[in-house]
Amino acid sequence: MLEINNLHVDIDGKQIINGLTLTVPAGEVHAVMGPNGSGKSTLSYTLAGRDGYEATDGTATLGGADLLGLDPEERAALGLFLAFQYPVEIPGVAGMTFVKTALNAVRTARGEGELSALDFLKLVRARLKDLGIDEAMLKRPVNAGFSGGEKKRNEVLQMALLEPKFCILDETDSGLDIDALKIVADGVNKMRGPERGMLVITHYQRLLDYIKPDKVHVLAKGRIVKTGGPELALELEEKGYGDVLAGVAA
Amino acid sequence: MAAKEPLGVAAFAPSFRERSGEPEWLSGLRRDGFARFSEGGLPTNRDEAWKYTSLRPIARAKYEPAPANDDAVLGDLPGLMLEGSARAVFINGRLAPALSDLEGVTAYVLPLADALGADWVQALLGRQVDDAQVMYALNAALFDDGLAIRVPDGETMPRPLEILFVAAPGERALMWHPRMAIDIGENARATIIERHIGPAKGAYLANHGADIRVADGAVLTHAKAQLEGGEGRHLAMARVSIGEGAIYDNFVLTLGAALSRNEVATSLNGSDSEVRLNGAYMLNDRQHADHSSRIDHLAPSTRSRQVYSGAIGGNARGVFQGHIVVDQIAQKTDGHQLNRALLLSDHAEIDSKPVLEIYADDVKCSHGATAGDIDDDQLFYLRARGIPAEQARLLVVRGFLAAAAEGLGDEAVRSIMLAELDKALGLEGIE
Ligand SMILES: Nc1ncnc2c1ncn2[C@@H]1O[C@H](COP(=O)(O)OP(=O)(O)OP(=O)(O)O)[C@@H](O)[C@H]1O
Ligand SMILES: [Mg+2]
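ok -> structure tokens follow
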């Protein structure tokens, strides 16, 4: 499903991703852990197509389609979704307007046609209910003045609405309270399925208690330096990154 | 060497005439206004208040006063902006009673000519004019029509009032100078919405003047959509006095006209009074739009809030001048002013001049100005959700401009103003 091969990424001429190789087959959930500044968000922005994140070498494909040459909206239309580590505030644009525009854009790109106002409202209400989010949140401007946790929930709401083929969650657990973490994890688990892949970036084993990963990767210095089963996360939680990093060349 | 004649006097002088049948105070006001104009002429860039906005094109345009019984060619009038409003329609600066619907508000809204005998009208129109307010003086000299709007103490105007100004210029360049007198009595309430529209072709000058009093405890919501035609020039000045505990809530959306200036001069005369001046504008091609404000805090615990946001493309130019004066006795003044501009092309320009004059020591005043490009993070966020680049840009611009309307208290009025903005952006019906 998602195949990344020997990826190198520069930001402002500085190499941040440094020969990264990673495959997430359809139906699997992989976790990525790694120290601050190791390149986890850089990887997710690069996959989503942010300006300034230049892939100088290597490939990244989703379902066989080359991602790196595409505009961000084309990647979204292909079914890629990134839940941002730092969701962006857009004062002056109501949340409802935003999700409706996004959903219709993605549906149009997939040749599904726009939803009627009524069907859209039904769908939104159902997803809001799943995630325990008050409809009032969508009447407010996108993320403007939202608490950290509210922003993260809003990301997962968008994900649930857009029904992407592949989800990248960049520290979606940070900032969530204990109850919200459960609700969000339930929302994510509901979306797991044989057709869908997920890459879950996190610092904490706690999230992985709820969202059981098929594999855990350690990203350090711009590369995957270790891969293991769920037990790897437990090990890291206990011992830190010291042992894993000890064997990694600078 | 003979002294050079002040700018525009030759162009406008022939329009001035003595009018019979008007009260003496008004004849005097007109003569004073004309004398003041003749002395200095149209303001030039040498006048501090007009530093960034040149009226030279107006001096050259040879505007003629619009004829009284015009056979202006009108298309269908647009529907009401706000459902349930009464509506006064002006064609080329003159009230068209047959096109208006003042049912339910006839006791509150009169043709100005029918109210000239009222003391309150004289009191409002007769107020001192500052030296810089030359176009206002010219308006006094030349106005042919207008409205007298009055809400007695404790009352609420039963319906919001839309004033629709339709420009229907013909072959020749026309001008008009409508005048409004608005008096909102103690603890009274009213909502007034102005809409100015004109055709894409046809030159004209609309030079508006408004005298407004918001008495103690009163609230006036005053919003304006300036959608003048592409060759139109639009100058408007409102002078507003605000009483104790009163609120003047003003919003302007500027989209039209080749040249426009929206000027609001307010005095917070009573303690705990509040003024909100907010505006959004979008300019293209060679449009020039000037938003100027002056706020005098003349009493303790007064509050002012201003946010003007503009998106400027093409070779267009935006001007913001915000002048706040805090009098010595106006302790605990709380004043905030912000001017934000998005420059959407290399040739777009914004000139921003904030002035704070503070004579009291216990005040909270701030101002800020930003000018820059579209926010890349916002753009990427929208695109990452599948929204195509062009539409994402429009949404970012929309958000940027709409944020200026947040200070407008009346939600229904805010949403009709934003609907006009969305129409202009091609995002109609997005909310
Ligand atoms: N615009 C930029 N210019 C220069 N360096 C950058 C830029 N953006 C990121 N970096 C650097 O790239 C490295 C990787 O950052 P990234 O945000 O990908 O880390 P991360 O693994 O997501 O960290 P965290 O766990 O703290 O979220 C960091 O050293 C960071 O300072
Ligand atoms: Mg990160």
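The first strand of chain A starts at residue 2 and ends at 11.
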